[in-house]
Structures are given as structure tokens and as C-alpha cells.
Amino acid sequence: MQPLPVPCPAHLIPDASGTTAFHKAYRQAMVHRAVFVAIESDGPRWTVKADTLTAGREYSVDDTVYNAVRAAISRLVRNREVGLDAYTGPVYFMMHSVSSESRARELAAALHAALHGDLEPLNRAIPPMI
Predict the structure, then answer these.
(1) Entry pTM
(2) N or C: which end of the chain has fewer CB within 10 A?
(3) Which residues contact 97 (CB under 8 A, 6 or more apart)?
(4) Residue 47's beta-bridge partner residues?
């Protein structure tokens, strides 16, 4: 398995539903010293997960990026698009109760791009409040 491209198209975000699939995707991110990102099915709802620990000690999230990601996830919570139990980093990010696989993939791809310094996909997927 190759590392995810940056930016990663939504259709390439791994589905890590189930223990085996999760461990496989997480191990692959560790092997490639890459940010882990995946979606998981939770019945009719979906979860988006990202973890920067897999990218190694030298990887860090810039304050501007972290603040933008945290604000975007907070907007999703306020809009009830994701659950109140969302994790907003700075190392681990998770959003539960996403309504569809396609929306989960869109959010995961946007989060992945943001964690690599590109906030544009995040701003398209979760527009800033005016």
C-alpha cells in the first residue's frame, strides 16, 4: 500500500471499518511516517479519524492550521453535522455521526489537506462563518 497523496482525493481515503482494517491503515501510515486519516462506518453513520503521531516526532501542526481545523470542527458540532464528542486535536482528530460516506470522505480529505498546510479544501468543505 502506498502512502496517501497530498492532497488526497476523497475517493482514496481508506475505509478503516472494523479492527483489522483500522490496524492495517494505521500501520501503513506509521510505516510511511505519514499522517493517518481514515473513515469508519458506524451503522448508518460515519466517523472521520486523523492522527499525526504516525507522522513521527518531527511532524507538528502549525498554530494557524490547528486553529483553523479546531474552528471548522467546532462549526460542524454547532451545526449538528457531527457529534458533540468530536476531538479537535492538536494530535488526534475525530468526528462521529457524519451522515454519509461521501460526506465523511469529503471531510477526511479536507482534514488531511489541512494537516499538510492546505486550508482551501477545509474552507470549501466547511465554510467559515461570515
Answers:
(1) 0.96
(2) C
(3) 42, 45, 47, 82, 83
(4) 40
